Amino acid sequence: MSVMKRMSMIFKSKANKALDRMEDPRETLDYSYQRQLEMLQKVRRGVADVATSRKRLELQINQLEGQQTKLTEQGKKALQVGREDLAREALTRRAGLDSQLGDLRAQYQQLQGEEEKLTLASQRLQAKVDSFRTRKETIKATYTAAEAQTKINEAFSGISEEMGDVGLAIQRAEEKTETMKARAGAIDELLASGALEDFSGPKDDIQAELDRMGSGPGVDLELERLKAELGQGPAPKELSQGTPTAQPQQQPHDTPQQAPWPQNPGGAQ
Amino acid sequence: MIVRLMGEGQLDVAADDLSALNTLDAELESAIESGDETAFRAALHALLDNVRKVGTPLPADSLAPSELILPPADAHIDEVRSMLGDEGLIPD
Question: What positions does the domain PspA-associated occupy (chain B) (predicted)?
Fold first, then answer.
């Protein structure tokens, strides 16, 4: 049998089972209406939960973007004072942040979509619940218990299908949100532990090094100049931004991606 | 005939448009049986797109049950298989 038909029958049989449990059809109406109101609450909680996760992600994205900008600036500054080793270090760290940010932004998009879907589902369910309430009162006022059964079945199967659909949507959203929460928690821990390096804190060795060199020409740069005057080495080249000259490194480093300076490392709205 | 796209709502599809849907539905079914995720994804999306194109959305306050029901667009093949199984995923 076709997939579409089978799905529909599964929903219908669920509705019928629920109806069979009821003695008095009118009782079915009231009981069902209570269940609907509970489901509405659940959907609203779901929307709020997804929104909370989304906001948390947004904060993390902003934090990481701030660090990304800072590392870029530090890289530039390091180059200006002729410290290519520091610039390379800053860029290497920035590359690590770049991939984290890429993932987070993708998740953010996903959560936004989820939030939108649930909001619409909540509106659809609300409209059906209102409609069911009206129908319920009409049936109770107009028909005897014996006559009411057919009318009740009609109203009940429509709303119960909607409840099944929205119930599943909530379950799926909850699963996704849980995964995101775990991930956001892990990132918070990383940020707290300094493994992602809170470069604005005291751990910021790059900044410390740059500060130590002062805002004017650095000590090392002076040293290079003096050496050049005394004929002990090449004078430092004028460095144009964004094209670090390849000089042999004292300490070997992993070669980072030679990315051009991003004009706007932001991206999440 | 009323068709529900899970997570999206219900649409009314004219009888003339059903044969095209049935062809796609058969493809979806064989993809689920063979466990071919790629074919499943293609068939499901083709089916959903088609229903959205030919169907007229029902008003939100309608209480009519659907004749046909389709899984959500981002459903995984295993998820749909268990929906169709005895256990089912649809909450009571």
Answer: 1-92
Please indicate whether, in this complex, the C-beta atoms of A7 and B83 are within 8 angstroms of each other. yes
DSSP string, A17-65: HHHHT-SSHHHHHHHHHHHHHHHHHHHHHHHHHHHHHHHHHHHHHHHHH
R_g of chain A, CA atoms, integer Å: 32
Cα(B63)–Cα(A127) distance, integer angstroms = 10
Nearest CA in chain A to B58: A124
Secondary structure class of B5 (helix, strand, coil): strand
User: How far away is chain B from the Cα of A158, in angstroms, using its nearest Cα?
Assistant: 4
Conformation bin of residue A197: beta by default, left when phi > 0, alpha when psi is -120 to 50: left
pTM over cut 0.70 = yes
And the tokens for A174? 């909850």
Alpha-carbon distance A18 to A10, whole Å? 13
Q: Are A163 and A126 in contact (CB under 8 A)?
A: no
Distance from CA of A34 to the nearest CA of B (A): 14
